[in-house]
Structure formats: C-alpha cells, structure tokens
Design a protein that fits this description.
The complex is a heterodimer. By secondary structure, chain A is mainly β. Helix content of chain A is about 0%, strand content about 55%. Chain A has no helices and eleven strands. In chain A, strands 2, 4, 5, 6, 9, 10 and 11 form a seven-stranded mixed beta sheet that branches. In chain A, strand 4 and strand 5 form a beta hairpin. By secondary structure, chain B is mainly β. In chain B, strands 2, 4, 5, 9, 10 and 11 form a six-stranded mixed beta sheet that branches. In chain B, strands 1-3-8-7-6 form a five-stranded antiparallel beta sheet, with no helix packed on it. The chains are: A mainly beta, B mainly beta. Chains A and B meet through strand 5 and strand 10 of A and strand 4 and strand 5 of B.
Chain lengths: ~110, ~110
C-alpha cells in the first residue's frame, strides 16, 4: 500500500511566522504535489515536483515555496504566514505525471493562522 | 485547457436510494478521468478511474461511472446509498505532464 504521511494533522501559527509542512511518501514515486483545499473551491494546486530539486508552480504559488532535497520528502514553506493561508493542505504523490497515473494523498494538515 | 465541472455542490439522498453525482469535463484530447472520495478529516481516496477501453468503470464500495464522450460526462452512480457513503466526492481530469485538475466537489448526505 502506498503511504503518504504529513507531519501534522493540525497546526496553529501566528501571522508572520515561517511555517514548514512536511510530506513523506514510501513508494519511491517520482512526483509529489501540494494542494490547498477550501470550502466551495475544491483542491487548488500550489506546487509540484517531478524530480529531486525540481519544482513547478501550480495555480496559486504566491506566498509559498517548496523544497525537495530527497525523493521521498516534499516540504511546503510559508515564508511569512498570513490569515488568508488558513486552510487544509494536502500532499500527494504519483509514479507518473499526468495521463493514467492516479495520485495518492496524505491525510492533510489543517493550518490555522491567527 | 482541461477543466471539470461538478453539477450540484450538495446532494441529499435517503438510505437505499440511487446515488447520482454529475461530472462534466472539457478536454481537447482523450481524457483520463478520476473520482475521489474524502471522508471527514481525511485525505482523498481513489474510487475509480477511466483510462482507455471499457466506458463503464467499476470502483470500490459499489460505485461505478460511465464515460460518455458524446456528452463529455463521467457521472458517478451507486444503486443503493448507505449511511457510510456520506462524504465529499471529487471528479478530476489528468492533463499530460502535470497534476490532476479537480472539480469543486459534491457533498453527499445520506438520511435514514
């Protein structure tokens, strides 16, 4: 079974703090993704990575950065957290990019910025 | 660009009734289509996917979906709803070389 784990289920941070969200997958997948999920908006892609040290912007990259130093780990960084970044963050991985390859999701991190 | 539209943000059914969740897509190339389910406070789980071949796709938990190219639709159905089916459902399309594109989701409520 593919397993995608996220470092925290719930996180509360203050405005202006630097926030790290960690994601680890155990299936040697090439591709990893970060989404944010908001009611009525579905899932929106923030960044994805198709290889170690490689990254691509998604639909809403502003205010975020990512890091992928090892194949199994993909980190999302909020350089200076703001209240409008309060959301559910979902990490995913896949063996291929696009096409018939499904993505496997972690349980999510619910981030609250106060 | 590819996109997905889910008709109805909220669907309510009685236990034992038919479940029908609607999904329409736009794509300039043959699509790869997915349905995911999200139970409260959990991540997304794959229900089923259409790649090529048979247009009626069977998934987990008794769900199935039919790919209709002429209608650009991929509606999800289940003959008889169970209380445990209450969740949020997402339709998604895959674009070559990038990530899944999701619809906005449909919340399914099941009453006894």
């Amino acid at each position: 079974d593919v397993k995608v784990t996220q470092s925290s289920r719930y996180l509360v941070k203050r405005t202006g703090e630097k926030v790290f969200l960690e994601c680890v997958q155990d299936m040697d997948h090439e591709n990893m993704f970060w989404y944010r999920q908001d009611p009525g908006l579905g899932l929106r892609l923030i960044y994805f990575s198709y290889d170690v040290k490689m990254k691509e912007k998604g639909d809403i990259p502003e205010g975020y950065s990512v890091s992928r130093e090892k194949k199994e780990r993909f980190s999302l960084i909020l350089e200076s957290a703001s209240t409008n970044q309060t959301s559910m963050y979902l990490c995913a991985s896949s063996s291929g990019l696009g096409g018939p390859y499904e993505q496997y999701f972690g349980p999510g991190t619910r981030l609250t910025v106060t | 660009a590819q996109s997905v539209t889910q008709l109805g943000s909220h669907v309510s059914v009685s236990e034992g009734a038919l479940v029908l969740l609607r999904c329409n897509y736009s794509s300039s190339v043959p699509p790869y289509l997915f349905w995911y389910v999200q139970y409260p406070n959990q991540g997304l789980q794959l229900l089923l996917k259409y790649t090529t071949g048979a247009t009626l796709v069977k998934g987990i938990n008794g769900f199935e979906a039919e790919f209709k190219k002429s209608e650009t639709s991929f509606h999800l159905t289940k003959p008889s709803a169970h209380m445990s089916d209450a969740a949020e459902y997402f339709c998604a399309v895959n674009q070559a070389g990038t990530a899944l594109i999701f619809g906005k989701g449909t919340t399914l409520s099941v009453s006894s």
